[in-house]
Amino acid sequence: MKTIAAISTPAGSGGIAVIRLSGPDALTILSRFFSAKTPAAEFAPRTAYTGTAVLDGFSDKCVCVYFRAPASFTGEDVVEISCHGGAFVAESVLTECLKAGAVLASPGEFTRRAFYNGKLTLSGAEGIIDLINAESAAEANAASYLAEGALSREAKEIQAVLTDLLAEIEAAIDYPDEFDFLNKPKTESVLTALIEKINKITASYEYGKILKQGLTATIIGRPNAGKSSLMNALLKIDRSIVTPVAGTTRDTVSETLVLKDIKINLTDTAGIREDAEDIEKMGVERSYKAINSADIVLFIFDGLEGLTAEDKKILAELRDKKVIFLGNKCDLGNMREKSAIPISALKNINIDKVAEELYAHAKKSAGGSGIVITNERHLTALSRTAELLASARENLKTNTADLIAADIGEAYKKLGEITGTAASEEIINKIFEKFCLGK
Amino acid sequence: MKNNNGKFDIIVIGAGHAGCEAALASARLGHRTLLLTLNLEAIAFLACNPSIGGTAKGQIVSEIDALGGEMGIIADSTSIQFKMLGTGKGPAVQSLRAQSDKRRYHSRMKYALENQENLILKQAEAKEILTTDGAVSGVSTTHGETFLCRAVIVCTGVYLGSRIIIGEYSENTGPAGFAGAKFLTESLLKHGIEIQRFKTGTPARLNSRSVNFSLLEPQYGNTEARFSYLSGSAQNPDIPCFLAYTNENTHKIIRENLHRAPMYSGNIHGTGARYCPSIEDKIVRFADKERHQLFLEPEGEGTNEIYLQGLSTSLPVDVQEKVVHSIAGLENAEILRYAYAIEYDCINPDQLTPALEVKKIGGLFTAGQINGTSGYEEAAAQGLVAGINASRKLNALPPFILRRDESYIGVLIDDIINKGTKEPYRMMTSRAEHRLHLRQDNADFRLTPRGREAGLVSDERWERFLGKQADIQSAETELDQTLKVDEKLIELLCAREENPPRGGGITVRELLRRPNISGADLRPLGIFEDLQDSILSILETNIKYEGYLKKQESEIAAAKKAEQTLLPNDIDYSAIGGLRIEARQKLNKIRPVSLGQASRISGVSPADISVLIVYLAGRSGK
C-alpha cells in the first residue's frame, strides 16, 4: 500500500494549513524534511511535536502529530503536519512529501481507505467528508456533530419507536387469532409526534445549507445606485470597477466574505433598467437569475431621490425574497425613505450595520433542534420518512394493516440510510419480546 | 456393492409432509423413486395441530399447489372448516386456514403415493447413506437391504434421534407413539454434516364428549376460498372450533409446579421456538397477563379427539390433569393423550445450496424439519423444491430456485440457507419484504408458469391457468370505460361514503381506486358481471394497491442488480481488511453466489457489503 499525501485544509488563506500523510511510510517520509528534538522515527503516537520543516529555499515552524495504525482516521499510520497558512507554504510542504516518496492522494482517498479499513460508518463518512470541506468554524461544528452521530442517534431513536409500532402491526397481521388491531388514536398520535419531530430536524437544513455553502446575498439596484461601491465596502477590497458612468458592471461579480462563523457569498449585479442596450440586456438577465438563487437581497437605491418608479418595478420582482433596504449617499443629504438603512457606500458609513443584518438573517435560519443537517441526502431521507409516516396515518383510516406496515417499514429503511441499520430480524425479535403469541 | 436389493434414481427418506411432496415430484418428473418410511401409518401425519395453512402458511400451500404439488388438493378435499384470516387488514395479508381431518388427510396422501407411477413405497428404516467419491450412491436399511441411487432426499422430520419428555418421564421415541429414527444421525455425522438439536411440543387431546361446550364460544369458518386452483367449489362441512381461556387458578397451578417442568428442571436441551411456547413458558415470560387464549380444534369427523391449541406443555401428567380441569368448560374433560415435548436432531441449513443440496455431498438433499424449520407447510414446500432439484440434477439441468420476490417458498429457502436456524423457523408474512405482491389470491399468476417450466404442472392445470389469464386480460379492458354519473352511481357512492366525481363521468379504474368501493359493488352497474369472484378480487387489489405494488416492483428491479453482481468463488474473505471477523467467517462458510445473497447472510452488515463493493471495484480495477 502506497503512502498518500494531501493538503487537508481548504484552499485559500487561513491561520494554519494541515498536510496529511497516510500509509506505512508516513513517518519515514516526514523524517526526510522535518527536524525536531525527537527524531520523527521515535515519535510517540498522539503527541504534538514542534520542529522545523526544511522546504525549497526556506523553512517553516510546524507542529506534527503521529497516529499509529490502526488507531487513526484511516486505520493506517497517519501523520498530520500543521504548517503556517497560505497556499504557498502548504504546497511547499506537500511537494517535500511527494519528493520523499508519497503519492498525491486522489479525491476522497483518505476516507475510502478509512472505510475500507472499517473505520467509518456510512453517515460518519459523510460527516467527515463535510468536515474536510469545512470552510468556516460553524460548519466545522455542524460537521463534527454529524461525525459523532448526533443525527444518527436521533434517527435511531425514531427507528426504535417505529420498531415498536411495526412489532404491534406485524403481530396483528401474523397472529390474527390473538390480536385484533392497533389502538388507532394512540398510533395516530405517535405518528403525528414523529412527523413533527422530523419536520423540526429538516427545518434545520436551510441553516445547514447556509453553514455549508454560505448565505447568498445579491446586491440589486438601478444603474449607478452604488452597488459595486457597496460590494467593495463590504469586502474592503477593490474587485469591481467603480466609475461614475451608469451601467459599468455588465456581468454579475461574486466574492466571498466571512462574518464571524458564517460565510457570505456576495453577488454584485448589473444595474437593472428598462432601456438597456444589447450587452447590458444580457447583464440584466443575469441579474434576475442572481435574484432567483439569492437567500437575501441587498436592495440599494439613491436615498436622496427615494424610491423611483423604476425602483418599484424592480421591487415587484423581489416579492418573494427577503430584502434589506439600503438608502445610499447618506453623506450627501437627507434620506427620503425612513425605513431603509441610510448608508454611504463610498464613505463607508453604516456598512457594519449591513453586515450585522446579513449575519442576523443567517443565524435566524437556525432551527431549535440542536441538530443541523447539511447533507442533501439526509434531508431527502428525512423528508421522505415524514411523507411515509403521513401516508401510514392516512391508511390507518381504512385499517389496511398491510399498507400501514409497508409505509412504516419503508420509513424505517429510509432512516436506515442515515443510521445504516436494517430492520426485519429486529422486528420479529421485538414481536416475541413484547407479545405472548403462538399456539 | 453387496446385497444390491434394487436400483433407483432417487430415494426419499421419510414420508412426512416434505417426503411426500419430494417423492411425488421426483416420480412425476420421470425418476424411479423409492420412498422409505418408518411406518406406513405415519404417512403425512399431522402430528401437532389438525390444521393446514394460516398466516403466510396459507400462501405457501397455494404456492405448492400452483407449482403442481399435492398438499393443497388433499387439504381441500379433507378439511372440515375453512377460514380466511386477516380480513379487514388488507388483501395482502389475508391467509387461508383449514381445519383438517387428520385421519383422512393421512389416508388420502397415502393413497396418492400408492397410486403414483414410478414411485415405490416401503416401510423400512434407513440406516446409512452410502457415498462414492463424495457423491451419494445408495441407502442401506436396518433390514440389511441396500438400495442404489444417484440422489437421496432426507426428510426425517421430528423422528431423527427423537426423545419424548413428559415431566420426569422421557423416552427415546417418535411423536404420538411412533418409533423414532435411531441410526441416521450417525451416518450424517460420518459424512461431516453438523447436527443440532431442536425441541418442540404438542398439547393434550381431549374427548369431546367430556367437554362442556355451552361454556365455550364456537368459531365457524368464513369463506368459500380453497388452497388449490383445481378445487373449484368443493363441498366441505363447517365444523366449529371453540374458544376457551386459562385463568388465575390455571396459572397458579403451573407456577407451583414449575420445578417439575423439564424446561426449567434442565431435562430438555433442545432449542425451542419462541412462536410455539409452552404454557409454562408463556406464564413465566408474560407474568402480568391475566389469561391466555385456547382453541379447541376437532381432529376430524370420525373421532371425538379435540386438540387443545395454546396449552402445549411438558409438565407431568398429574399436573396436566389439574391444569386442564382448571379451565372453564373443561372441568370434567378426559385427556385421551397427554401433552409432550419432543427433542430431535436436525442440521443447520447453512450447509445447503439454494437447491437444498448439501454442499459437501453431491446428490444429498434435505427438506423439512431436518433443516431446522417447523410447520407442515414449510416442510412440504421444501420437499417439493428438493424433489424438483434432485430430479434436475440427475438430468444435468440448472437448479430450480424460487426468488424472494415471487414466493414465500423463495423467502423461506433463502432465509434458512443464508441465516441458518438457531431455533425452529416458522414462516411469517413479516419475513417477506415483497409481501404486498405475495398474496394468497395470486400464487398461480406468480408460480404456475414456473411450475410448468419445471414439468410439474399438468395440462389440465395449465389450461385452467391460461383461461384465468385470458379472463383477467379481458376484464382489464373494462377498466378504462367511463361510467355516466347517474342516479344509480350516486346512490352507490353515497352508501359507501364516497364523494361524487367532478364532471359527468368516472372510469371504472378511478372508481375502484376509491378505498370504500369494492369490485362487487360494480356488478349491479353492469360491470364485471360474468367475472369470477377470485379474479375480480385480484383485479381490485392490483388497482387499489397500484402505487405500492409499483414501488415494490422497482425495489425488486433494484434488488436484481445486487443479485446479478456475482461474487467469484475464489475470494478469500479472511484476507479482506475491513470485513468484521463474524462476516469473514460467515462469508467463507456460506460462499454466496451474489452480492444480493451476501447481504442476507446473518452476521454480514450493510457496512460489510460496502467493503465488499469497494473490494470488488478494486479487484476489477487491477
Describe this structure in words.
Helices cover 46% and strands 17% of the residues of chain A. Chain A is α/β, with parallel strands linked by helices and 439 residues long. Chain A has a seven-stranded mixed β-sheet with strand order 3-4-5-6-2-1-7. In chain A, strands 9-10-8-11-12-13 form a six-stranded mixed β-sheet, with helices on both faces. In chain A, helix 12 runs antiparallel to helix 13. Chain A is flat and about 85 Å long. Chain B has 622 residues and is α+β, with helices and mostly antiparallel strands. In chain B, 35% of the residues lie in helices and 18% in strands. A six-stranded antiparallel β-sheet of chain B has the order 16-17-18-19-15-20, with no helix packed on it. In chain B, strands 7-3-2-11-22 form a five-stranded parallel β-sheet, with helices on one face. In chain B, a hairpin with a 6-residue loop joins strand 18 and strand 19. In chain B, helix 1 runs parallel beside helix 10, helix 3 packs across helix 4 and helix 6 runs antiparallel to helix 9. Chain B is globular.
